[in-house]
């Protein structure tokens, strides 16, 4: 399989990490179908790779069109080997001050659309007895941060779903990897970050800190062009990782969280064990 062209389906590939993944897959000779928000479904890469690239419009919230998009993707190249669930955005605001329509829409795009796309692709991969699903989580899907409660909640949901899914589909030769990017130099801290900031509230200090997040855009430590190369390496592995943090910032956050969890477990071990039946 490593020497044959794979077919990738990548959601939310208008720009950023999704576009980087598409470029890397095309560069190694693979076929790529992407979904974009542009109404005409156009993507700049399509003109460069007319024989191996297709682009389809999909608003991630429109889950009723997901099956049709997958069917069209299948019709282009006869199989789907890699699904990259990348579509999403961020919300920065104190949990108490985040309105319901804001966090519900975040879940629709970041979690429920991912689930529906996966459900639509899995019958194809099961028939093939092969496939690889790559779900985009975040550094915030393993280590939660103040001001990003709902973004973390979405990514924690992605992680739990993906971990259970990996065990369900393994007998069919389908692999699952959760990618946890740190801060990449995309527009995530710019247009792709929604905020509900109220500097006059009791959360004034937190709101001021959140207001500064977008100002760091363009100075993130990780290179999006290297992201695509990592995905290409993952899908070539016989035994890929279930979870893969990307970037030194993500690695250090993972280590810090694991250490804190271990310390807390040890500190409260007697109380944790106190509910066991006495024999």
From TrEMBL:
Pfam families in UniProt: adh_short
A Gene Ontology molecular function term of the record: oxidoreductase activity
Species of origin: Paracoccus versutus (Thiobacillus versutus)
InterPro entries according to UniProt: NAD(P)-bd_dom_sf, SDR_fam, SDR_oxidoreductase
Keyword ATP-binding: no
UniProt key word Oxidoreductase: yes
Name of this chain's protein: Short-subunit dehydrogenase
Recorded family membership: Belongs to the short-chain dehydrogenases/reductases (SDR) family.
Keyword list, A-Z: Oxidoreductase
Gene3D superfamilies registered for this protein in UniProt: NAD(P)-binding Rossmann-like Domain
Residue ranges the record marks as coiled coil: none
Signal peptide per UniProt: none
């Amino acid at each position: 399989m490593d020497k044959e062209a794979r077919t990738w389906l990548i959601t939310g590939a208008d720009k950023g990490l999704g576009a980087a993944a598409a470029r890397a897959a095309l560069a190694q000779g693979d076929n790529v179908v992407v979904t974009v928000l542009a109404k005409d479904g156009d993507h700049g890469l399509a003109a460069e790779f007319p024989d191996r690239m297709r682009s389809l419009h999909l608003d991630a919230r429109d889950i009723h069109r997901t099956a049709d998009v997958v069917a069209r993707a299948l019709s282009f190249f006869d199989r789907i080997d890699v699904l990259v669930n990348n579509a999403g955005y961020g919300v920065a605001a104190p949990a108490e001050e985040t309105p319901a329509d804001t966090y519900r829409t975040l879940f629709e795009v970041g979690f429920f659309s991912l689930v529906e796309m996966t459900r639509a692709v899995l019958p194809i991969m099961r028939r093939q007895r092969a496939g690889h699903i790559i779900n985009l989580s975040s550094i915030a899907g393993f280590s939660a941060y103040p001001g990003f409660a709902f973004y973390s909640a979405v990514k924690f949901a992605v992680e739990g779903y993906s971990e259970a899914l990996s065990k369900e589909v393994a007998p069919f030769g389908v692999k699952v990897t959760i990618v946890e990017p740190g801060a990449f130099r995309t527009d995530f801290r710019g247009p792709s970050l929604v905020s509900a900031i109220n500097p006059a509230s009791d959360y004034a200090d937190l709101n001021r800190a959140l207001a500064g997040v977008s100002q760091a855009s363009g100075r993130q430590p990780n290179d999006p062009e290297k992201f695509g190369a990592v995905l290409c390496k993952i899908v070539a592995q016989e035994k890929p990782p279930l979870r893969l943090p990307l970037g030194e910032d993500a690695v250090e956050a993972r280590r810090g969280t694991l250490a804190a969890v271990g310390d807390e477990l040890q500190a409260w071990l007697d109380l944790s064990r106190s509910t066991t039946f006495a024999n």
